[in-house]
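Narrative of activities, Objective 1.

The group set out to show that a structural description can be obtained from nothing but a protein's sequence at a throughput compatible with the screening campaign. Below is one input-output pair from the validation batch, recorded exactly as produced.
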Amino acid sequence: MSIVTWTATGTVGGVYSTAIAAATTTKAHSTSLLSGAGDPTKYNPENPLILVVIQLFIIIAFSRILHLGLAKLRQPRVLSEILAGILLGPTAMGRIPGFSHHIFPTESLPFLNLLATMGLVLFLFVIGLEVDFGLFRSNLRPSLAVSFAGMAVPFGLGCALSVGLYNEFIDKDIKFTNFMVFIATASSITAFPVLARILTELNLMHDSVGVIVLASGVANDVIGWILLALSVALSAASQGQVVVYILLCAVGWTLVLWFIFRPIFDWLGKVTGSYDGKGPTQSYVCAVLVLVLVSAWVMEEIGISSIFGGFVVGLILPGGLAAEITEKIEDLVLAIFIPLYFATSGLKTNLGLLNSGTIWAWVICIMVVAFCGKFFGCAIAAKSCGFSIRESGAVGSLMAAKGLIELVVLNIGLQAGIINTTVFSCYVLEALVLTFAATPLTLAFYPPHLRRSLEHVPDVTILTARPSRDEQPDVRSRFTIVLERFENLGPLFVFSRLVATPPSFSPASTATSLDGTLALEDQVASVERKMPQRQDPVAFDTLRLVELTDRTSAVMNASTESNTEENLRKDPLSTLYATFASLNGIQISSRSFSVVGQSSFADTVISKAESTDSDFVLVPWRLHTPGEESVVASYIPNPFEALFGKPSNEGHSSSYTSFLRDLYASSPCDVGVFLDRGSPPPLDALPGFHHLFLPFHGGSDDRACLELVTQLAKGNRGISVTVLVLTRAPEPTDEDKEADGEVMSKTESQAASTTKLKSIGGEDPATAIQFTLQGGAPLSPRGAGETIYPTQHDGIESDTADSLALEQARARAPPTITFLAISTVSPLRTSLLRALAIEKASQARFTWVVGRGRRDAASHRAEGLEILKQAERERKLGVCASAEVRRCLGEAGTAALISGVGSNLLVVQSRATGGRRGRGV
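Output recorded for this entry:
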């Protein structure tokens, strides 16, 4: 900096002189590595972003890597984030020379603390949104008892424990009452967000234990924050009356939010259209976030922590938009800010200070007091409310979980100087251990097979009597329809039109009175007689499945699942299908709404089918067409596909096929998977007409298909059916010669079936893909030995049952069903050729109906391999490149899908072959 002297002469000859500091022009500091900026981790106060980005990357990556292992132990993500923060601090990584100095220098911590505090304010706002007082009111007596006992007992034990900790570790300049309140609050508080995620992981959200724990956690959470506000007020006040003033101001601001800002935001939501079903608008969300920041500032200025301001705004926000607002901000908060807060807490935690037997004795004492107070207090209260011993033990184990909220209390106490680093480290370790122990203890007390779930299924109202299974065993009158994704509505509409029986009118003559009019009773009776009457009533039971993820918004939706009618009313997919059913005269007997994890989809569907006594479960599946792929992505090669292979992500993921196979394995009734290629029917197809093509190879699944198509053809005049009865011949027949143009010997056919398949990517045998449909070398570890081949005795019984089923079907078949019997050496290929010829000749929408055939049907493995080989050469495998998909479809279904013939494919598994095998069928 240089000094410049400026001199001026006035009008009266006076000289004025002053010195001006002139800033010298310096070259801007270069931060580019290319210009030799040096160490990028060096802290630069003029540009701290570079180091902050490095810190964020290390924190997030480390916590995510830890969660990969802890997730296998069914631990919540918060545990890996706490552990990552501890390991990055002086306990572990900080002992590496130069690590803390370069990555987490002391000068950079204020920036991290600022971001962490901002994220914590938003996270506490989300926690406030999670609080559902309706859940607490609906379970008032048990939740009140459990929450009160879960607070009072550990709070009292914490007060007693604080005496010894104060005498052992705390400077006597600190007031004992302040220290006691902090320790008692930390011992008694339950981490409500952690609790909700543990319940989600253990599938307890809809269990009696989970509902009571969640309701008790609501009250415990609110009381805990009140105690935290009291603790902060005590630490901030120099005199006793100041504490009263701080608390009164906090209560006054809360009342202002409730009576002034709550009506304002209710009006704003109506004005902006946030209540119209489309979710909160950007203006509404912006106003909410501004109020959160203002409330945080007010609470900080009053003397309460700023994070309490965000929590209060979450409590008072009106309109039922909690889940929608959470969806807007939760990813940024949970993915970036919360791991950052745990890291800043971990940097203050030094487990190396626990270096003596006395300190470790106090650590164990802290864990025992915190756990026993929560466990026995909550368990005894639950037992007194009528819960069993196992259920009470699960309630106590869950309520003992700690997490973020306790760390918030401890951090505030550490910043205020009420506790020191040693006590802080002891309680951080206690929170880590108790949170880790919650899941295994809950599973030990309350394993899945002992649980009693709370089903929220509306009462089923049957408008017409259903036929008895004993009287009509081949009639399927109750169908469970699974609604999961919008893209699956197309196949659902098609199947519903196929199954629904059009109403028929029965003429009725009515006598009139002398004046030509009818009495009121006679008019009503006349109208009732003229209403459409169903000859064979078909009823649908819909199940809306919503995947429960680890997102906070998903957990909030799951906690409100008990209001089934309200959820169905708000759900556009359920509303759209209900409207379609109403317009097409389809009877819906019951509607259910369930928010569960993907792994529980099959159990939920099975439970629904059993509760409604369904005859058939339908799962739709729309396949993505090649045109839906990006043009650029289809032409630019991906180098990772050459290294690891091209994933088959068409349609649904592998988790969806796993759901289907679990459903196959345990379903008590027939299961149908209705696939839609996503391609429109031919332009010359007559609207409302469908042609069903059933290649009958034999077995229980094909017999179920035969009964189904017969029922559909009898109930709907717009449906025509071709049943192609295929018999395997020992030598090529005239049918084969006509198809091949030459004689193919049996030896040549068998030799061709054993040809190794080349991989899609090249000729290297090391990377070759060997397709398997049944048995043989599996493509994935789950596939070994899944097909059960029939013995000779089983084969004779199956052939007899097939012949009987065909005779009965021919006897009662309507004229719209055509039976063709063909003997061929290659049944799959023959069925494909016949289907192609029928589709070209027909003016109706063509639909395959095939049996899955993986238990008592004849094997077509050799021929199926040939079809796969040819499709691989022509690059037409599509979704069938996945072994999981091929197992779901079976051999006939896979061949039909590869052929490209028809718009739809229905794969059926009979109740006779389901529900007998273990998982992974």
